[in-house]
Every structure is written in C-alpha cells, then in structure tokens.
Amino acid sequence: MKFYEACNQPAIGNAKSAFLSMNVLARNGPAYITLHKDYLGDEGEKRLTELIEYLGQFRMKPTD
C-alpha cells in the first residue's frame, strides 16, 4: 500500500458499508460478512474482476 494511513478503522468501515450497499458483500448473521451470492462461482469471479478494474481507474497514479 502506498498510503499506509488509509488502512485505519474508519476507512475500512466505510469501505465495508459501501460494499454492503453495492451488494458485493452480504451479512451472514450478526457477526459475519461474506461475498454476496452474485459474486460467487465463475460468473461471480468475472464480476469481481470487472469491479476491481472499475475501481482501479480511481487510484492515484504514481508520481516521480
């Protein structure tokens, strides 16, 4: 990770909430979170890859 400070509890909690609202993650009981059923299996892997590529366009580019 380029910016270690981005790995804090609020940032992780916000990401978790965003993925829950996007139905990428699903609650599996009160204490567990799993991948949503739409992101399981071969088709799910394809959807995850597309999501990663989409999110990758928002990453900061390296500067020299």
Strand content: 5-15%
Give the helix tally. 2
The biggest sheet, with number of strands, parallel, antiparallel or mixed sense and barrel status, is: 2 strands, antiparallel
**What class would the helix/strand composition place it in?**
mainly alpha
The helix fraction, in percent, is 40-55%
Radius of gyration: 14 Å
Count up the domains: 1
Query: What is the residue-mean pLDDT, rounded to a whole number?
Result: 87
Q: H/E order of the elements? A: HEEH
3D shape: flat
Q: Please report the distance between the alpha carbons of the first and last residues.
A: 17 Å
Number of strands: 2
Strand order of the largest sheet: 1-2
Multimerization state? single chain
Regions with little confidence, pLDDT below 50 for 5+ residues: none
Describe, in plain words, how this protein is organized in 3D.
With 64 residues, this protein is mainly α. It has one domain (4-56). The protein has helices at 9-21, 41-56, and strands spanning 25-27, 33-35. A two-stranded antiparallel sheet has the order 1-2. The longest helix has 16 residues, at 41-56. The two termini are 17 Å apart. The model has no long low-confidence stretch (mean pLDDT 87).
